[in-house]
Write a structure and sequence with these properties.
The protein has 130 residues and is an all-beta fold. Helices cover 0% and strands 43% of the residues.
Amino acid sequence: MTLDATITDGLRWTVVCPYPRLEPERGVAALVDGEQVALFRTYDGALYAIGQRDPIAGAYVMARGIVGTRGDIPTVASPLHKQVYDLRTGECLDVPGVAVPTYRVRCRAGLVEVATPAVSRPMADVGGAR
């Protein structure tokens, strides 16, 4: 699939995959604007996007984490050391002061899109055009 990008409100929205490609409670890794992102769809259909890099282990593994909840908080546990992160905020619920980056994510026309800050780039770089 060719990744398309559109810019709105200072954000570059990149199409990552069709919504059905995201299985509930299973993560998928994607490269979005040069950043490794872990995408999750929960059983209630909500979408979340966080950084793929585990800030404690330093490995790019968060998409392989264990999805769950802590109270009403949707979470993912690192597959390496099992620290639990809030999928909404990226905050580690086990180690104060540790967090993963979060990204805005939406479903539009059946496609999952992830936002990154729009920066001025040559037109040849936009949407993979050459």
